[in-house]
What does this fold into?
Amino acid sequence: MKKIFLPILLVLFLVSLNAVESKITSVTVYSDRAQITRSLTTYLTKGEHKILFDELPQSIEQNSIQANGKGNAILRDVTFKTEQFAQITDETKKTLIDKQQELTDRLNEFRNITAQATDEKRVVKSIFTKLTSTTEKTEKVELDPEKWIKMVEFYRSKHETLDKEIRDTDKLIRNVNAEMDKVVRELRKLGQQAYKYKNMVEVLVDVQKEGNLKLDLSYIVYGPSWTPIYDLRVDSQEKTMNLTYKSNIFQTTGEDWNNVDLKLSTAKPNMSAQPPELNPHYISIYRPQLTMKDLEDVIALPAAASRSNKMAYAIEGMSVEQSFDAYETVDIAYSESTVESGATSVVFDIDGSNTIKSDNEPHLVTITIQEFAAGFRYSTIPKHSQYAYLKAKVKNDSDYPFLPGDTNVFLDNNFVANSYLEAVAPTEEFWTFLGVDESIKVEYKFVKKFDETGGLFIEKNKKIFEYLIKITNNKKTQEEIVVWDQLPISQNEKIKVKLIEPTYKEDTEILKINEHKYIEWFFEPKPGEEIEIPFKYSIEYPLGTQIDGL
It folds into this structure.
């Protein structure tokens, strides 16, 4: 018998399976996914060993898995596996499911109490009705006031007791339902199928010399995301803007990221094993059809990849023997997957260690704090709002691109508004509004409207509209302000619109009119200065015609 089992035992020991605990050490978060790196260090004897990374997330992208590390070894193979099991191995999930069952039992108990009390009320009412009613077949009930009073008191007391019991039980049911909702939400976060199967990766290494082996396993998981958010603190005296660039990170991968090196990336990783190909770049006169951007999106789609358990990239190029220095640690031979990144994509390396729980709650981290010189200008549209709105012009002279995101705006340490920042590249200038400043007074007066009606030989009506805009600078400094109004736009050749005041021939630094007939005035009022802007225009149209839009 020993001779029979000995070869089998020798084969088993030739490749040992090492289930070693690994730890998440670094995470790079993209807009809709994250790259996770797990690390472990273990002591291995010479020969082939299988290193097992167990309990990996359900949303893992199989084709993104890669392994590398440090040690006197050669990486031979990387295998992805899915294992079915009946028992719940996730203790957190098991606890929640047990809690769910406990709450279900309590709900059933409380509902039984409510049903029993309701039935008892029905019985008491039935007895009371029977005792207090007569029919032709029943004998006449003897009227005893004392007995009737006791019966009514009993009926009332019993009803009050049962009603209170029902109310108290209903309150308990509401509380249990609230607990149940919380448990269900937590279970949903962990994933509906997490307890039915688990993912794992086996890494086969050929150890050339006994010693410590450091192994890293990286993979992509879908779901995590990050969104930028900004605090803009403006000092109107120093003419500066302090910008705090932050990020809200969300993740429900089922595994917490505890004390990890955290990076945020603007790139969009490609899961293909090879880079995309170029197609001829044609240009032509625009016609409504498929655009080049649409074509590029199609080109950038990941190539179809094999879903077999064996990772294709881990098979070739791994059989070359290497020599190792006894006192040096060398890189394990491995193949890299490609990552597609745009010309403007960057990676933000967050300082220190960071912890992001798998709870789908926002986790705030700071990307950078920058201070910029700011120029200020006011903008007003008196026709719609008789306020001057302060805005700041800033040049992004940092190395950080600012992604589109919400902003909290503070002016001289006072919160003034929530706003939105568009995408801003390094070296690019941008404007941001800072809210209303009542030190700049704005008035909009309707002066008059009069008609020049058709006479004996006149076949047209003419309406003249006259307004007066006043801007008063009550600040102690000279300021810049842009004032906006508009002319009506005729959509019929028989309707003529003419600007009377201000006089306009062509755009100047002070007065501009665009294709939408928006009029823009630019002024630099001194402290205490009042500026009056007359605005007057006429509309001519045929007699007997009704004008829409006046």
